[in-house]
Amino acid sequence: MSGSDSRPPAAQSLTAPPFTDPPFPAQPLPGRPPAPEPAPAAWDAGVQVEIVIPVRDEERELAPSVRRLDAHLRDHFPFTSRITIADNGSTDGTWAQALALAGELPSVSAARLARPGRGGALRSIWSASDAAVVAYMDVDLSTDLNALLPLLAPLLSGHSDVAIGTRLARGARVIRGPRREIISRCYNLLLHATLGTGFSDAQCGFKAVRADAARLLLPLTEDTGWFFDTELLVLAERAGLRIHEVPVDWIDDPDSRVAIVPTALADLRGIARLGIALARGTITVPVLRGPAPPGLRPGGRPGRYGQLASQLARFIVVGVASTVAYVLLYLLLRGVLAAQAANALSLLITAVANTAANRRLTFGIRGRAHAARHQLRGLIAFGIGLAVTSGALAALQAVTARPGRAAEVAVLVTANLVATVVRFALYRSWVFRGHGGRGGPGAIPAPRSAGPETPSDLVQRQLLDLSE
To answer: Which of 155, 216, 254, 358 could form a disulfide with 362 if both were Cys (CB 3.0 to 4.6 A apart)?
Structure first.
């Protein structure tokens, strides 16, 4: 049984304390030399791979899935391994089944955490693991187990540091509904645009990481839910770790317990939190292997592309809040004002607030210096937005004399998105240019030419920056 842990069954069952931060420093200690490049561990001691299955109220799926995984490891896996069932907050018979499986199968252990949250469970178990490589997979085993060895072999050989299954790369074969497919692709595109990520699939429940790298990155993570995967991958990429991707065969579980809307909102909050923390430097990512990915300086400090991506992430967050406020104000004022007047007034109010918020949050400018100048320039950018939205509203009224409120709002939101692209280019290249302060998030490079630039030139130059 080359694929099993030889510990006696009595040692397989344990009850872990509630989730707490593992006892690792959040960043390298002062004066400590740079972390060495991860090297292959000595395989003559301990378990080589620990696979964690996080579960919560999964009594129906747990036993058949664990037995199937255990059989696959025993018959087809050439490395010593352990399966750990991480019960995080179950209220049904899941924990009793986990204990029974730990007593029945020598390679299975069970840990119970009182606090719900997949990310918290993984962080707790991985932090305490004595294995050389730690991994996890969803309890429904949606991923074909034949991908397990290709996932883990590059880590065990020392070739790579992190490995992920991907449903979005060439060669993957996926069976799932169109709604989940669209949400998944949009989420990963958002990650590429806001955080400058290079990996293709952040959400596939099939990942592994070398334990030595995990111990350095886990203390930097905060999320205890579904965003944990994304957070760890972003930190790993910024630490210069090599991420290996395995196209998988995936069959979606129709009985999935994941609540799509709350999970999506939590992911958006996670993107905003992580992007702002990285941009402000409140998270210091150690350089663990070689140079950082393109667009990042060593230690995760953003270069030109990384700075642009982090600013764009914060601008999007502010923009979403501003758009919601704009629509609510328009609907409120539309009851007493004509459409054009309601649009102009609501846009003016939100433009002033938007300029102030972007000044502080997106470009990191504090204090009153140049605040009036920034607001004046912001109002000029507002004028462009007003022209775009008013023109769109006039075009709608030319098509139909009495458009409904829903049609007006849809047209205005679409036009406002177009105006937002122009406004971001103007904010970055003109409104706040040269006033970033101390090289922080708003420290923007000097102009490429001394001559005046038109708004069209500014937009084109920003697009060139994005392509570099």
So the answer is: 358
Q: Rounded to 5 degrees, what are φ and ψ at 98?
A: -60, -45
73 vs 1: CA distance, rounded Å = 9
pLDDT in tens, 156-211: 999 999 999 999 888 889 888 777 787 888 788 778 777 878 898 998 999 999 99
Give me 3's structure tokens: 């694929």
The tokens of 46 are what? 């301990």
Q: In order of start, what are the domains of the chain with their CATH numbers?
A: 9-299 (3.90.550.10), 303-467 (no CATH)
pLDDT band at 311 (very low <50, low <70, confident <90, very high): confident
Sign of CA dihedral 123, 129, 134, 135: negative
- State how far the Cα of 124 lies from the Cα of 120, in Å rounded to an integer: 6
Phi, psi of 144 (to 5 degrees): -60, 130
Structure tokens at 282: 């409140």
Which run of H or of E encompasses 453? Answer: none
Q: Encoding tokens for residue 48?
A: 């080589």
- DSSP string computed for 211-245: HHHHHHHGGG----STTHHHHHHHHHHHTT--EEE
Q: For the chain, what percent of residues have pLDDT higher than 70?
A: 76
Place of tokens 């019960």: 87
Tell which residue, 378, 363, 447, 372, has the closest CA to residue 419. Answer: 378
Q: Can you tell me the distance from the alpha carbon of 431 to that of 371, in angstroms, rounded to the nearest whole number?
A: 10
Query: At which residue do the structure tokens 């458009």 appear?
Result: 403
Please tell me what DSSP assigns to residue 13: B
